[in-house]
Amino acid sequence: MKDYLIHLLSFIDSEHIKIFIISMAPVTELRFSIPYGILLKSMAISDVVLLSIIGNIIIGIVILYIIGPLMRFFRRFSFLKKIIDYIFHRTLNKGKIVERIKFWGLVIFVGIPLPLTGVWTGALAAYLFGIPTKRSVIAIIIGVLLSATIVTSITLISIL
What are the pLDDT digits (tens) for 137-154? Predict the structure, then answer.
């Protein structure tokens, strides 16, 4: 997946735009964009972190606002309904912390950079657990800042 994404992005001239796009992509998010920019492209840490945070927050907010209408539309089709139900089931199982402590659970879920966490799954979890959109936006922003801090710290420690 990582190699495919790098290949796709090779057609884009600006490394800054690449960082921004990588931070918005599902699975990679800023967990990949920060190390990619700092370690592989030797870009300024402040540029990489800022672009990664902005891109990750933007995609999280977009998902929060479009997830409901999209899910209602796609569930009309039986073959898509099965896929969506699988994704919902997986998210509900992974999102137990979100269900228990709602706002702070969402912050932790988005903020701890582990597989199957992040803004994409966090936004879906917020929708599934009925967390109000405005509270979800704030939780996602705090979670992204936490995740960026953790990923940047690990990345910088790996340089030493």
Answer: 999 999 999 999 999 999
User: Mind listing the pLDDT tens digit for each residue in 53-89?
Assistant: 999 999 999 999 999 899 889 888 888 888 888 888 8
Residue 138: CB atoms within 10 Å: 14
- Encoding tokens for residue 79? 């073959």
Rounded distance between C-alpha atoms, residue 149 and residue 105, angstroms = 18
**Domain assignments of the chain as residue spans, ordered by start:** 2-159
Residue indicated by tokens 């932790």: 108
Q: What is the pTM (predicted TM-score) of this model?
A: 0.84
Write out the DSSP string of 76-140. TSHHHHHHHHHHHHHHHHHTHHHHHHHHHHHHHHHHS--TT-SHHHHHHHHHHTT--HHHHHHHH
Q: What angle do CA 124, 66, 149 make, to 5 degrees?
A: 55
- Cβ neighbours of 90 (radius 10 Å): 13
Q: Going by C-beta distance under 8 Å and a sequence separation of 6 or more, which residues neighbour residue 18?
A: 9, 12, 36
